[in-house]
Amino acid sequence: MIRYAERPPAPGLEPYIECTWSSHALTNVRGFSVLPDGCMDLLEGRVVGAMTRAMRFNVEAGRTATGVRFRPGIPLCCCGWMAVN
User: How do the domains of the chain map onto residue ranges?
Assistant: First the structure.
């Protein structure tokens, strides 16, 4: 079982950030499904996404992850690149 929560961005960051999120695995989870949402995330110091297909992950009990979900196109624009759909 995985406990997952999303929180709204800090005031003023709404145009750039969709939400912050956290997850914590209470038990070992095999095949945890993550669906594509068109957004990129900052996860463990790296930008990941945007996914084009669903992916499955095995997650060990006790594993905690936190991230920042950007609105579509934001990370590349912030780096001086144009996002491409």
Answer: 2-78
Query: DSSP class of residue 39?
Result: -
pTM of the model: 0.80
Long-range contact pairs involving 10-16 (C-beta distance under 8 Å, separation at least 24): 15/71, 16/70, 16/71, 16/74, 16/78
Nearest-angstrom CA–CA distance, 24 and 58 = 13
**pLDDT tens by residue, 3-49:** 999 999 999 999 989 999 999 999 999 999 999 988 888 888 888 87
What residue type is 79 in one-letter code?
C
Whole-angstrom distance, CA of residue 32 vs CA of residue 20: 20
